Amino acid sequence: MAADTPMIVIFGATGDLARRKLIPALYRLMQRGELSVNTPIVCLGRKEYSDDQFFKELQIERFIPSTAPSFLEQLQSCIHYLCFDLASGTAQEIQRMLQEIRRSSGCAGNTLFYLALPTSAFSRAAHLIHPLLAEKGWKRVVFEKPFGQDLASAEQLNLDIGSVLSEEQVYRVDHYLGKELVQNILFLRFHNEIFSCAWNSSAIDQVQITVSEALGVEERAGYYDDSGAIRDMVQNHLLQLLCFTAMEPPRTGHGNAIRDEASAVLAKLRPPEAGDVIVGQYGPGSSGDESYRGYLQEKDIPDDSATETYVALRVWVDSPRWRGVPFYLRTGKRLGRRYAEIRIVFKQHHLNGLVLHGQPNSIIIRIQP
Fold first, then answer.
1. Angle at the Cα of 240 from the Cα atoms of 323 and 203, rounded to 5 degrees
2. Whole-angstrom Cα distance, residue 326 to residue 245?
3. According to DSSP H, which parts of 180-297 are helical?
4. Burial grade of 248 (CB within 10 A; 0-12, 13-18, 19 or more)
């Protein structure tokens, strides 16, 4: 094994994010030859599973269509499941378990920690990781959205994390930014003269950003009822899409330059007024031959929960490029179909005094499927 082969450590490995996103992503990296078959993937969770039991619980075939048996075997050989309780466990326990895997696999001290955890557990996890930083090799810690419950808690979380980790070791990520079509938005806008010249309030009437989900909360009830559609989707995924759609050209292609322009959009974002926000909650219903429960009938949801599962809002970006152009953001569960898109709706101009009828021209960026 190469001396610089890293170890990947996933906190919260029995959760929905790991099963739906992280493990399938690692499978695809291995399939493309971008992840070594010698890379240990250490999965930490509270449940007492063997490696084989954990792999079975991942339900790989459900989330990765057309899996190849050879790559599944390679992925399974890399996975090491360890029972670890974040609340009562110690840094010494983690250190001992990881050292044993390092010795058996022959990998070096380079380590990527991925925190697929509720935001309330981030600070605790960072302090558990801190003693491991003294070991040889680089360390990187990935914090998955959402980051805090509100501004005050996000600022406090940054202070807590900054007390044990350096900024170079910290990655705050939104997995939506990894989607190919999201990354292509910047190329569509800034590397195509046809679109870039018309990407402003002179030509555009409105922008619609929609993330529609057909499923309900499923196994995420405990997390979802504490967050709701606004925290779960709007303040991260939809705002990221808005920023990529509305930002000015970054000075360079460096990540910080893109982040700075995205931050500039948020600074100019006018908070919605009361009449610009609609929230709702799905009730019982049916789709075809299948019936489903309402949100209040879902397992582990309180009978009196007022958590929103649908939100639609109108916001404005007060910049010269976008002044007067409304941005409509919509997301919800148990909607008619699953899709995510950005729809740029152009103005209908008059031609020599004639009114042009019919639907306005649009650019539709389909993110999924």
1. 30
2. 13
3. 180-190, 193-196, 221-229, 239-246, 255-267
4. middle
- The SS3 call for residue 313 is strand
Q: Of these residues, 80, 127, 175, 237, which one is catalytic?
A: 237
Residue type, 219: E
237 carries an active-site annotation? yes
| Dihedral angle of Cα 140, 223, 262, 312, to the nearest 10 degrees | 170
Over residues 197-240, the pLDDT tens digits come to 889 999 999 999 999 999 898 877 878 888 899 988 998 899 99
**CB of 308 within 8 A of CB of 280?**
yes
Q: With 0-12 CB in 10 A as exposed, 13-18 as middle and 19+ as buried, what is 341?
A: middle
User: 266-319, pLDDT tens digit by residue?
Assistant: 999 998 888 999 999 999 988 777 888 999 989 889 999 999 999 999 999 999
Burial class, 73, CB count within 10 angstroms (exposed 0-12 / middle 13-18 / buried 19+) = exposed
Task: Give Dmax (Cα) for the chain.
Answer: 79
